[in-house]
Specification:
The complex is a heterodimer of chains A (396) and B (499). Helices cover 26% and strands 13% of the residues of chain A. Chain A has helices spanning 4-19, 63-78, 132-140, 184-196, 252-262, 272-277, 281-284, 352-357, 371-387, 392-395, and strands at 48-55, 86-90, 125-126, 159-166, 169-170, 173-176, 180-183, 202-208, 224-228, 289-291, 315-316. The longest helix of chain A has 17 residues, at 371-387. With 499 residues, chain B is α/β, with parallel strands linked by helices. Chain B has three domains: 6-148 and 347-355, no CATH class; 170-341, 3-Layer(aba) Sandwich (Collagenase (Catalytic Domain)); 366-455, Substrate Binding Domain Of Dnak, Chain:A, Domain 2. In chain B, 38% of the residues lie in helices and 21% in strands. Chain B has helices at residues 60-66, 71-81, 123-137, 141-147, 191-206, 248-252, 326-341, 364-395, 403-425, 428-446, 459-498; strands at 5-16, 31-40, 46-57, 89-94, 107-109, 114-118, 170-179, 185-188, 211-220, 229-231, 236-239, 265-271, 280-282, 294-297, 301-305, 320-323, 352-354. In chain B, strand 14 and strand 15 (301-305) form a beta hairpin. Classes of the chains: A alpha/beta (396), B alpha/beta (499). Chains A and B meet through helix 1, helix 3, helix 4 and strand 11 of A and helix 5, helix 6, strand 14, helix 7 and helix 8 of B.
Chain lengths: 396, 499
């Protein structure tokens, strides 16, 4: 710890030396260009798509946030992004909640029309794992090495990422599971860290909370487009309560966004300007906002499927190589060391022998607390009240 | 800071066979010459390409090798005589009348690191041809720009730049056989043998660049996302070009690539169409069926459609047993692997003849091309990673850098400097190894889990928490302190008054 400050100074010097090695950061030097319509294959420079869908609420009365997130998850899967490229963070306490009259379902329409929980939902961060720290770790990639691949955002410089967040928010912050919050400054810094490491090509950030526009006010990294369900000072309202389930099923903004997305199919050419028009004030009561000043391309040219779907760029293979197929058994030039193959067996699941033969564990003694303490205090007080304080010396 | 210069040195030996020397040589052989070329990357940085040419005449052994019947044999014989370091090139200039090179070909590029050039015209013409040749065999401005594509403005690059796989420490290759109709086709592919015979030699050659691991799987009832169109004239089913992008997605979810390692995964799929959709051909833009019947997607992998011949008698019992011709399949897959890495042979002028690398999959000079591009890319990555780490430290002043993170940073800087030094002296292999170490260390330092900026509180949050706590407590304390000071002062005054 004591070496922290000099280490920091030395690292700065070392990194400054490294910076003079080669190129300066070109983040701000990106030119804006309208893509040529004929260059259809490479209109957007991305080669893969990722989605990070976060529901930041828990508890039964926040059913609608889980339904929001799951509906977006379904749309994104339908349009082609596979589970391996989706990081879904949910509190996931709706489907098996004791208050759910239809267990193992999460509905998104009134009269229980659409079960968005389905049977192929893959939740990557569930329940108490949905924390600000985990969310930032997913975004920046500073994940402990033991994290499984499904919990990582393995995007590269040619990935378009869709980030959808919903929950309860305020002016400049978003509440995570009633115990912590993330501020817009932290979010903007996280995106900047992503940009520094070129972890995205373009980013679409959608937020459906109260005062959602405050969350994208502080972004400063390039190639980010943001949409929010309400402006600062406005609340985002929920859509429809279901009398059978007893809670509101969805939020208005996401409901209309989903109606819009239902008409999109993987080959559709609808662009972002149409998404900006979704949910006008007459339907949504709040005023949805968007931010495109950091985005390089014109929203007119950005397809919805650039972020919500996963349309790959393909090329026809015209070259082949010729192989000599009479070659009998190729002797590899590299020595392949024979690993000693030991018989495989299961790791010890339970130390059964230990459990059966163990002695009762010595519990550490704690002073009594709570009720017992109160009871004894009462007894001692009554004793001394009755018999007088002079008996104290018998105790001490 | 002053603009940084990276110098890429290519040692080239130009060997003149007897009868091929041009008349206007400036000095008698052997002599040295250096050509430098600036590749401008952006406004502040440029890369210097330095070709250190050594001109000499052939030794007796080389002359004997050049007496071979064909260019290929000459190349093989010459290879035994050279000790070719990674990154270096040897060009043999043969007389104009020499029969080694076929008619109309003036440059022959061998499998290793040598080439044969037909002497024609004077020194200037030779120099131009040499420059073209050395660029093909090492790096060009566009290949360097492609390697640095994520740090350059978009307008500068062609569509080529975004295609190639990024430099990584390892790659995972997955071969999948998709059989949507197991009731009609019982497909058998001897993938293990094919991998050992055809894929492993290529991967052994590429093992210099990265670690490769191979696995394979068979998926049943996996369908393509699109319904092919029936074409009456050819009585076959066709997949048009614009429906190809939608083919991959429904399959990708089944491929299980998420269970694999953290390295980039390259998927090669072999699709055997259903009996009701056989034969299936892929159409290119002009409507003609593609000869390879395959397509690939940058940074993802490739798909090949393998048509099963209709059985001779319509009464043949189902399922038909299909033995996949792995040679044909591997020819396409390995070609796609080359294309994914960016090794394409298509854009050369007609007077070039390139020797096919055979079962090794790629020539030595193509491997060198990869190494040049990856080394430059690695150095650029290290530089920007460490710069952004330094910027993070500037922003959050009280971040704590652990000792192991600090040592990783030092190691990264040292390795990067060593890589640049080796590039300047022309040792490509060592430069690449050093750049790989530099990237590993810098990534480890940057992505260390302890650097989460959430853990470091900005000052205004600290004030916001502690002031409401301590200010009310501090008020009586301060007031009593003030009282004590007042009393002490009064007490000091009192004794004088008493007197």
């Amino acid at each position: 710890m004591a070496a922290a400050v000099p280490a920091v100074c030395r690292i700065r010097a070392a990194a400054a030396a490294a910076a003079t090695l080669l190129l300066g950061c070109c983040g701000a030097a990106l030119t804006s260009s309208i893509q040529d319509q004929a260059e259809q294959f490479f209109r957007s420079g991305h080669t893969n798509n990722w989605a990070v869908l976060v529901c930041t609420s828990r508890f039964w009365f926040n059913y609608r946030h889980v339904a929001n997130t799951l509906s977006v998850y379904r749309s994104v899967k339908r349009l082609g992004i596979p589970d391996s490229h989706i990081v879904l963070m949910l509190a996931d306490d709706m489907a098996c909640n004791p208050r759910n009259p239809k267990p193992a379902t999460v509905f998104s329409h009134k009269n229980m029309e659409l079960n968005v929980y389905g049977d192929d939902v893959e939740v990557d961060y569930r329940s108490y794992e949905v924390t600000v720290e985990n969310f930032l770790r997913v975004l920046t990639g500073r994940i402990p090495p033991s994290t499984p691949r499904s919990k990582r955002l393995l995007s590269d410089d040619r990935s378009n990422i869709l980030i959808y967040m919903t929950g309860h928010g305020g002016n400049g912050f978003l509440k995570f599971q009633d115990s912590e919050e993330i501020t817009n400054v932290e979010l903007a810094d996280a995106f900047e860290q992503m940009w520094q490491k070129r972890r995205y090509n373009e980013l679409l950030f959608i937020i459906d909370t109260c005062q959602g526009a405050s969350m994208y006010e502080r972004f400063y990294s390039p190639n980010i487009m943001a949409l929010a369900s309400s402006q600062v000072g406005e609340d985002s309202l929920s859509h429809q309560p279901d009398l059978g389930i007893g809670v509101h099923l969805m939020d208005r903004y996401t409901f209309y966004v989903l109606e819009f997305l239902e008409e999109i199919h993987p080959a559709s050419q609808t662009n972002m300007n149409d998404l900006f028009q979704v949910c006008p004030k007459s339907l949504c009561v709040s005023t949805p906002g968007h931010r495109t000043d950091l985005f390089q391309r014109d929203p007119q040219n950005v397809l919805i499927t650039d972020f919500f779907g996963s349309v790959r760029k393909v090329e026809i293979t015209t070259e082949t190589i010729s192989l000599d197929h009479d070659l009998a058994g190729f002797a590899s030039k590299l020595p392949k060391d024979e690993l000693a193959t030991e018989p495989l067996k299961y790791a010890e699941q339970l130390p059964v022998a230990q459990i059966i033969h163990q002695k009762p564990k010595q519990k550490d003694w704690h002073p009594p607390g709570g009720f017992i303490l109160g009871l004894w205090a009462l007894i001692i007080m009554v004793f001394f009240k009755t018999y007088g304080i002079k008996h104290m010396k018998h105790i001490f | 800071a002053a603009s940084a210069q990276v110098q890429l040195t290519v040692p080239v030996a130009v060997v003149f066979a007897p009868g091929s020397m041009p008349e206007d040589l400036p000095r008698p052989l052997p002599f040295r010459d250096v050509q430098e070329m600036e590749i401008s990357v952006n406004l502040r940085t440029s890369i210097t390409a330095r070709y250190e040419m050594v001109y000499r005449s052939t030794t007796a052994q080389e002359e004997a090798a050049l007496d071979a019947a064909s260019a290929r044999e000459a190349d093989a014989a010459l290879h035994l005589l050279q000790d070719t370091l990674s990154g270096s090139l040897t060009v043999y200039v043969v007389p104009e009348i020499s029969s080694l090179l076929p008619q109309g070909i003036s440059i022959y590029v061998g499998k290793h690191r040598s080439a044969l050039v037909r002497a024609r015209g004077g020194l200037a013409a030779l120099r131009t041809r040499l420059q073209q040749l050395t660029q093909v065999m090492s790096f060009t401005a566009s290949s360097i720009a492609a390697a640095l594509s994520d740090r350059l403005p978009d307008g500068q690059l062609g569509p080529d730049a975004r295609r190639h796989l990024k430099s990584s420490l390892g790659y995972e290759i997955t071969f999948s056989l998709l059989n949507p109709d197991p009731k009609s086709h019982a497909v058998d592919w001897d993938i293990e043998d094919a991998v050992n015979r055809y894929v492993q030699p290529v991967l052994d050659k590429l093992s210099l660049v990265a670690n490769f691991s191979v696995d394979s799987q068979i998926l049943y009832y996996a369908v393509l996302g699109v319904t092919p169109r029936f074409d009456k004239e050819s009585s076959s089913f066709l997949l048009s070009t614009h429906s190809l992008p939608h083919v991959i997605n429904p399959v990708e979810a089944r491929l299980g690539s998420s269970a694999a390692s953290l390295y980039p995964v390259l998927n090669f799929l072999l699709y055997v169409p259903e009996r009701s959709h056989s034969p299936l051909y892929i159409q290119d833009k002009d409507g003609a069926p593609v000869s390879t019947n395959a397509f690939h997607s940058p940074r993802w992998g490739g798909i090949m459609v393998y048509n099963v011949e209709a059985p001779a008698s319509p009464q043949a019992s189902l399922p038909l047993h299909v033995d996949v011709d792995m040679v044909r399949v591997m020819e396409v897959f390995l070609a796609q692997l080359r294309l994914l890495f960016g090794l394409s042979r298509e854009e050369l002028p007609a007077e070039f003849l390139l020797e096919s690398p055979g079962n090794e999959g790629l020539a030595d000079w193509e491997l060198d091309r990869l190494l040049w591009a990856h080394t430059v890319e690695n150095i650029a990555t290290v530089s920007t990673t460490l710069t952004s780490l330094a910027q993070l430290l500037d922003k959050i002043g009280n971040i704590v850098i652990k000792d192991d993170v600090a040592s990783e940073v030092y190691r990264a800087v040292a390795s990067a400097q060593s890589a640049m030094a080796k590039l300047t002296t022309g040792h490509l292999h060592l430069a690449f190894q050093a750049s790989k170490e530099a990237v590993t260390s810098s990534e480890r330092a940057f992505f260390d889990p302890s650097l989460l900026h959430l853990l470091y509180f900005p000052d205004d949050q600290k004030f916001a928490i502690y002031i409401p706590l301590f200010l009310p407590m501090a008020v009586p304390i301060l007031l009593s302190l003030a009282k004590i000071v007042r009393e002490a002062r009064q007490h000091k005054k009192e004794p004088t008054k008493m007197d």
